[in-house]
């Protein structure tokens, strides 16, 4: 599995058939099934070893003594405190693939792969989806701020 195996060594090292989506311990069905997991793993294979080391370092620093990233650690790591709550939650859910309420290193690598290794159309869709809070295919209008009259 190339860099994917290196990216997710240790407790996060699971193959496609061993992910938390399958078997008795499954938390939820995968968003797009096995094909989506394979696509994410293919993205991971594109990471260079130095990228994986940097990702692991940032992940370990952010999670502290915990086993995975909490919502608070995630928000701090990506400096999302000033984003609308709905967008922060959508970003967290994008990373928390198994719906556990925490982000494992494998999930972290998957989401970072989507963010930095996928095509511009997919990245644009991701950003759009973060702010399409009611999933109606439209972005909410920004509130108008009081403006001083032009002179």
Automatic annotation (TrEMBL):
SMART domains: EFh. Coiled coil: none annotated. CDD domains: EFh. Residues 83-118 form the EF-hand domain. The keyword Transcription does not apply. Pfam families: EF-hand_1 (PF00036). One of its GO terms (molecular function) is calcium ion binding. The keyword Repeat applies. Keywords: Calcium, Metal-binding, Repeat. This is EF-hand domain-containing protein. It comes from Cafeteria roenbergensis.
């Amino acid at each position: 599995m190339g860099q994917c195996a290196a990216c997710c060594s240790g407790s996060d090292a699971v193959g496609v058939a061993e992910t938390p989506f399958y078997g008795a311990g499954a938390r939820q069905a995968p968003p797009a099934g096995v094909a989506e997991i394979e696509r994410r793993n293919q993205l991971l294979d594109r990471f260079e070893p130095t990228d994986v080391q940097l990702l692991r370092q940032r992940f370990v620093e952010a999670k502290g003594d915990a086993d995975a990233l909490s919502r608070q650690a995630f928000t701090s790591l990506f400096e999302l405190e000033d984003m609308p709550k709905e967008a922060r939650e959508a970003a967290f859910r994008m990373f928390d693939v198994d719906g556990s309420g925490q982000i494992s290193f494998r999930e972290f690598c998957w989401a970072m792969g989507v963010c930095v290794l996928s095509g511009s159309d997919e990245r644009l869709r991701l950003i759009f989806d973060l702010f399409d809070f009611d999933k109606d295919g439209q972005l909410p209008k920004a509130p108008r701020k009081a403006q001083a009259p032009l002179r």
